[in-house]
Amino acid sequence: MSDATTRYAITLVVNGVVREAEVPARRLLSDCLRHDLGLTGTHVGCEHGVCGACTVLLDGEPVRSCLTFAVTVDGHEITTVEGLARDGEPSPVQRAFTECHGLQCGFCTPGFLCTATAFLRENPTPTDEEVLEAVSGNLCRCTGYQNIVKAVHRAAEIQAELPTEPQPGLLQAENGSGDSGERGNTA
Amino acid sequence: MTTKLFGEPVRRREDARLVTGQGRYLDDLGPGALAAAFVRSPHAHARIRDIDVSAALDVDGLVAIYTWEDLPGALAEPLPLLIPHPALTHGRTAYPLAKDVVRHVGEPIVMVVAEDRYIAEDACALIDVEYEFLKPVVGVEEAVQGVHLVHEDVPGNVGAHMVQEVPSRDGRSAAEAIAAAPHTLEFRLDIERSACMPLEGKGVYARWDADDQSLRVYSSTQTSTSVRMAVAAKLGLPLPKVEVIAPDVGGGFGVKIVHPWPEEILIPWAARLLDREIKWTEDRREHFVSSAHERAQVQHVRVGFDDEGRVLGLDVTILHDNGAYTPYGIIVPIITSTQLLGPYKIGAYRVEFSSIYTNTVQVTPYRGAGRPQGVFCMERTMDRVAAYLGRDRTEVRAANFIGPDEFPYDQGLIFQDGRPLIYDSGNYPESLRMLKELIGWDSFPEMKARAAADGRRIGIGVGCYVEGTGVGPYEGGHVQVTSDGRVHVSTGLTSQGQGHETVFAQIAATELGVPIEKVSVVTGDTRRFGYAVGTFASRAAVMSGNAIALACRKVREKALRIAADALEADPRDLEITDGIVHVAGTPSASIPLATVAVLSNPLRYAFDEETKRATQFSGASSMDRPPVDEGEEPGLEGRDYYSPIRSTFASGMHAAIVETDPETAEITILRYAVVHDCGKLINPMIVEGQIHGGVAQGVGGALYEKMVYDEYGQLLNASFMDFLMPYATEVPRIETAHLETPSPLNPLGIKGAGEAGVIPVSAVIASAVEDAEAIPIDRMPISPSDLHTLRLRLAR
Ligand code: FES
Ligand code: FES
Question: Where is this region: Disordered (chain A) (predicted)?
Answer without folding.
Answer: 162-187
